[in-house]
Write a structure and sequence with these properties.
This is Aminoglycoside phosphotransferase domain-containing protein. The chain has 222 residues and is an alpha+beta fold. The chain is built from eight helices and seven strands. The protein has two domains: 113 residues, 2-Layer Sandwich (Phosphorylase Kinase, domain 1); 49 residues, no CATH class. Helix 1 packs antiparallel against helix 2.
Length: 222
């Protein structure tokens, strides 16, 4: 998908606001393995795009675009902070992360196109690797983790000074009927308190009597 194709997607969104965003992508990017409703809107699905996550459940959709050998990730949880995290790792470490080619958000959906890193999935070969190669992989992973653990900040936050948006903090509040935001936090103590608050606010009915207070105490003591 070239930058021109990306612009065509955006124009199509503007011209057909009632169409599913994904159906528009299908028309331009040959997406396979989507829902029946989207299939009907798309009037057929061309052949060459590969759905890498056909059984995704509630997760983001991920597609391989062979014409440009890039990856397209689409979903409500695909956010700008993911782009910035990839850029940070790319610039500050040797961790092999994809290069971001394009990102934008539309109607609550994020669209991230990035390079495809060549290689074989570790899950597909781990069982057949000899011990010395497994040890080498483990050593590489340890090195990558040490590199990103070495990146520091004065605050607990998403990159750019925004609220935390990982799975612990992103949830719908039954009591306020909106998605709550937490952070940035100035200390680990504040961060731990924010975690406990998020746990409390995410209770299905907002009722506190079933909240695991022992968990709250353990988190607060970290």
């Amino acid at each position: 998908m070239s930058n021109d194709i990306g612009e065509r997607i955006r124009l199509l969104m503007e011209r057909h606001p009632l169409k599913s965003l994904l159906s528009s992508l299908i028309l331009l990017n040959n997406v396979r393995g989507v829902s029946d409703a989207i299939f009907k809107e798309a009037n057929g699905i061309p052949e060459n795009t590969i759905n890498l996550r056909p059984d995704r459940g509630m997760a983001s959709m991920v597609y391989h675009l062979p014409d440009t050998n890039t990856i397209l990730k689409v979903g409500k949880t695909v956010k700008q902070n993911e782009v910035e995290a990839l850029d940070l790792l790319h610039s500050q470490t040797t961790v092999p992360v994809p290069q971001v080619h394009e990102f934008y958000e539309k109607n609550g959906m994020g669209f991230l196109r990035m390079s495809k890193i060549q290689g074989t999935s570790l899950a597909n070969v781990w069982g057949t690797l000899p011990r010395e190669k497994r040890d080498k992989v483990i050593s590489q992973l340890r090195g990558y983790i040490q590199q990103w653990q070495g990146l520091t900040s004065d605050f607990f936050e998403a990159i750019g000074g925004r609220p935390c948006e990982d799975g612990f903090f992103t949830h719908w509040s039954p009591s306020s009927q909106k998605i709550l935001k937490y952070g940035p936090f100035t200390s680990r103590r504040e961060y731990n308190a924010g975690l406990v608050e998020a746990l409390r606010n995410s209770r299905p009915t907002g009722v506190r009597d079933s909240f695991p207070e022992d968990l709250a105490r353990r988190v607060s003591a970290l």
